[in-house]
UniProtKB/TrEMBL annotation:
It comes from Achromobacter ruhlandii. CDD domains: D-AAT_like (cd01558). Its EC number is 2.6.1.21. This is D-alanine aminotransferase. GO terms for molecular function: D-alanine-2-oxoglutarate aminotransferase activity. Its cofactor is pyridoxal 5'-phosphate. It comes from the Bacteria. One of its GO terms (biological process) is carboxylic acid biosynthetic process. GO terms for cellular component: cytosol. The lineage of its organism: Bacteria, Pseudomonadati, Pseudomonadota, Betaproteobacteria, Burkholderiales. Belongs to the class-IV pyridoxal-phosphate-dependent aminotransferase family. Keywords: Aminotransferase, Pyridoxal phosphate, Transferase. The keyword Transferase applies. The keyword Ribonucleoprotein does not apply.
Amino acid sequence: MIPGVPGESQVFLNGEFVRIDEAKISVLDRGFIFGDGIYEVVPVYRGNAFRMAEHLDRLDRSLAALRIAQPFDRAGWIDLIEQLLARSNLDTCIVYLQVTRGVAKRDHQFPAEPVKPTVFGMVSAWAPPSAAARAQGLSAITIPDERWLHCEIKSVSLLGNVLAKQQAVDAHVDEVLQFRDGFLTEGSSTNIWVVSGGKLLAPPKNNLILEGIRYGLMGELAAEAGIPFEARRITQDEVAQADELMLSSATKEVLAIVSLDGRPVGSGKPGPVFAQLRAGYDARIAAL
Ligand code: PDD
């Protein structure tokens, strides 16, 4: 038994649906040995996968970046997601997809003979952020970004992110804001947004951050709300002086950060730009 995981829930592993407590991979799977694999986290509302095409596009990009063979075509991935949802009794939930390079003798380089990628999919219980989290906002601390230089790949090699998130937990806050060479990158598992002088700012899309599926969406929501948006490098001082801070991710949606390093952000309450973007996000979900 794994605490918090219903043993009878069905997962997909290499072509079969099996109980999660009976799903097994080889100890030589390169995902296990080297973290040599990629993943996606797709939020599902009332049975509808939100921004599925964008998630599957990013999954394709991650596989291509690691030169892992694509196990399914687009219709195959959609079919897998539908089957996973049909076999779960959850309608608002998370679909997790993972592909590793597969099983091979332990050697760092890619296997000389092509191996079959390991494909894993599961549905997990999930509740969107509570009314309290939306109304009160979250807290964060700033830390140096100590991760590698290919954060744009949604890789399962997440040790840097794991250690960053643990720093948040140890500091009794909700998230970290990471800085590389004095510039904002992202959270441990979220993109970060800064409001300054009525403008929405985000770090540029490059190898230093994961381009969240909500990164593009926030740009759309800002345009719809008439909020000017700029992607550019953001200094630690600008973050410290921000009128508003926000984070976004599949599981946190969009939430305000109201406390940074123990000091209030702006008014210390979720701000007006957050309220506009949050309303836009809710409207997209309601329209699903
Ligand atoms: N994390 N940056 C990092 C490092 C992330 O891990 C995530 C998502 C994001 C936001 O991406 P998106 O909007 O596509 O969720 C940004 C997921 C939720 C996770 O690892 O569980």
